[in-house]
Inverse folding.
């Protein structure tokens, strides 16, 4: 998934992404390399033409009104203080993607390990599809663990 750049105009390529669609027309893309939601959008799901047309470039495009959540970074980090700069990648965190499991409505719960704990990351639509509710849980406490939702 290609994402537009920030102030430096550098575009970002998410190489291991899962885009989650919903019949209520609110969708999101999850970055499997960082354990993070990187964008949400309303409208149609995806245009996958760039993946296969001609030689293809392996990307897809959301169809609708897109909200990008900034520079891709991980959702969990160990910080000595809330003012500490957030790490852009997973170096030193022992991050490992553990895949996802589907619930009874075929909606995913993403799983990964970081800092020696297992994490479950769940995003579900709010009533009326007016947004999403996200629940991140760890299987044991980690000192100075912070969450970056967006």
């Amino acid at each position: 998934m290609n994402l537009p750049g920030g102030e430096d105009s550098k575009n970002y390529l998410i190489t291991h992404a899962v885009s989650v669609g919903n019949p209520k027309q609110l969708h999101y893309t999850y970055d499997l390399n960082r354990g993070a939601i990187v964008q949400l959008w309303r409208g149609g799901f995806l245009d996958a033409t760039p993946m296969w047309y001609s030689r293809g470039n392996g990307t897809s495009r959301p169809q609708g009104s897109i909200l990008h959540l900034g520079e891709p970074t991980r959702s969990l980090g160990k910080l000595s203080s809330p003012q500490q700069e957030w790490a852009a990648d997973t170096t030193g965190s022992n991050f490992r993607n553990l895949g996802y499991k589907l619930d009874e409505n075929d909606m995913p719960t993403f799983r990964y390990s970081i800092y020696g704990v297992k994490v479950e990351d769940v995003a579900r639509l709010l009533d009326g599809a007016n947004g999403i509710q996200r629940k991140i849980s760890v299987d044991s406490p980690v000192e100075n663990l912070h969450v970056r939702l967006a």
